[in-house]
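User: Sequence in, structure out. Go.
Assistant: Echoing your sequence, followed by the structure tokens.
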Amino acid sequence: MKKTIMLFSLVCFLLSSGFTAPDTAQANVELGIVLPYSGNYNNWIITFTGSNGTYTFTTNDDTFDSQILGAIPEGTYDIEFNSGYFPSGFDFGVCGPTYYHFRVRSDSFTWYGAVIEDGTYIQIDEGY
């Protein structure tokens, strides 16, 4: 009888305090993009692949004006940069509060392990 009362009390306590599932969803962050200042190199295909899925964005003259690439869940991604502009050289940047790196490339490539978080933007500069 004593065990039954304790079990009943425990069940009542758990039910009164409620059950909530852990919040496992990642927050979406809006990615900004800065394309080459001249406005001549605006057409890119940028693909983000991570544990949250694969997201592909195509840039154009409208993207140059808005400076918004799109929204994806925050996390770590491999980023593939493609365009028809190669073999011209470009500076690529993934710029955020805790992850800020640039690379110079003259071909399509994949950037591994980029951290995407609130405030992150992609920057592409004309090659030098």
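User: And one key feature?
Assistant: Helices lie at 2-17, 61-66.
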